[in-house]
């Protein structure tokens, strides 16, 4: 098993006159692992929890999906706990991300059957015979008008006792508290050596791309899609993890 050296995220370290909307380009894919580890609190622990929960609900003879699989970190984590006969299906709309994902899966020694599919989660993904579907920091990038449709498509594609594992950036019910949470979040990024320029330019790049919901709005969406119950398994200021089970 070979280790892939992680490259340092410098995507936003040079000042530009107009900050373009954030896209998962080859430049981003090349540094994504460093970017997400320095930008998402307890990212490693979240990945461990996702893998454990996936192993609890993965069923023989079904599929495990990772929607918005990016560079494959979640699938590599799940591979250590989910029985090896259960195939993984990774889906992303960025070919650059999937190229990096395939490289990492091979380097990690993943031998189970897996597919990596390029698809637009707004319209172009099919969920079939799934016991587990993961949306790790993915749904927040979908335009809101399409989110309910995707969640319903996932619910319809899950087998009985199947689970959706959802990790999202969220906003609070109270605007004053929301400002405090964002303040603490940016302090977290500063502690991880992001400069004021990098923080401000990435915030601008994400403004019209990453649109977070309230935790209660995500829960309501899951319940209305037909999930029997959902529980919060992770919470840190403006980040949360939910598991929803279909009976």
Summed up, what is this model?
With 247 residues, this protein is of the alpha/beta class. Helix content is 41%, strand content 22%. Strands 1, 2, 3, 4, 5, 6, 7 and 8 form an 8-stranded mixed sheet that branches.
Explained architecture:
By secondary structure, this protein is an alpha/beta fold. It has a domain at 39-169 and 211-246: Rossmann fold, CATH 3.40.50. Helices cover 41% and strands 22% of the residues. The chain has helices spanning 26-39, 43-57, 73-79, 95-107, 144-157, 175-191, 196-206, 215-224, and strands spanning 63-67, 88-92, 114-118, 130-136, 158-171, 213-214, 229-236, 239-246. Strands 1, 2, 3, 4, 5, 6, 7 and 8 form an eight-stranded mixed sheet that branches. Helix 2 crosses helix 3 (73-79). The mean pLDDT is 96.
Q: Which terms would index this structure?
A:
single chain, 247 residues, alpha/beta, Rossmann fold, eight-stranded mixed β-sheet, 8 helices, 8 strands, 22% strand, globular
- Following the backbone from N to C, one meets helices and strands in this order, namely HHEHEHEEHEHHEHEE
Helix content: 40-55%
Largest sheet, in brief, is: 8 strands, mixed
The number of distinct helices, counting runs of at least 4 residues, comes to 8
Stretches where pLDDT falls below 50 for ≥5 residues? none
Rg, Å, rounded: 18 Å
Q: What's the CATH architecture name of the domain at 39-169 and 211-246?
A: 3-Layer(aba) Sandwich
Strand content: 15-25%
At CATH level 3, the topology of the domain at 39-169 and 211-246 is Rossmann fold
Number of strands: 8
* CATH H-level superfamily of the domain at 39-169 and 211-246: Vaccinia Virus protein VP39
Indicate the structural class: alpha/beta
Cα distance, first to last residue?
39 Å
**Shape, please?**
globular
Q: Mind telling me the CATH class of the domain at 39-169 and 211-246?
A: Alpha Beta
Mean pLDDT: 96
